[in-house]
Amino acid sequence: DKEVRAIFLRLFAQLFQGYRSCLQLIRIHAEPVIHFHKAAFLGQRGLIENDFLTKVLNGMAFAGFVSERGPPFRACDLFDELVAFEVERIKAEEGNPPKMIKHVRELAEQLFKNENPNPHIAFQKVPRPTEGSHLRVHILPFPRINECRVQELLQEGLARSQGAPSATRGDKKCVVPAGPPVGMF
């Protein structure tokens, strides 16, 4: 899982390298607005005709990326370090798969450490089923109804309803008879 995430982290670091140079902070509003110059970014990279990257930059996910990562003062993470310091290393590793795999594993280990800062505390969240548990049937029996208790509850309900003020309609409620079967008509 972490190695796949590390591969995508490298991919996005390569795709978005230099994005910070195309950010502009506009302070005409009460809260600053961050604007990304897509044309400048694509022009600097020589990718103006690249349909894929243009669609990525026009997507909502990239807009969220810019608003989240655009502010100049915020906590940095592994992605920021990759974009800022490791781009040359990533380029150098393109022709050398063993070095690339080594770097991916290092990134995966860093991702794991970021998510689990105290590895000795880590535990298995879902316990393993016991041996033979798949053979057992886990159906709880339906509880038996206590007839005496049901009669007591009915009597209590009747006593409360008789003590309550009568409704506007004077007719007592009763069970509607089913009537003769339809075949008789």
TrEMBL record:
Protein name: Myotubularin-related protein 13
Residue runs in coiled coils: none
Superkingdom of origin organism: Eukaryota
PANTHER family documented for this protein: C-MYC PROMOTER-BINDING PROTEIN (PTHR12296:SF16), DENN DOMAIN-CONTAINING PROTEIN 4 (PTHR12296)
Alphabetized InterPro entries for the sequence: dDENN_dom (IPR005112), DENN_Domain_GEFs (IPR051696), Tripartite_DENN (IPR037516)
Gene Ontology BP term (one): regulation of Rab protein signal transduction
Annotated ranges, domain UDENN: 1-76
One GO cellular component term noted in the UniProt record for this chain: cytoplasmic vesicle
GO MF term list: guanyl-nucleotide exchange factor activity
Stored PROSITE patterns: DENN
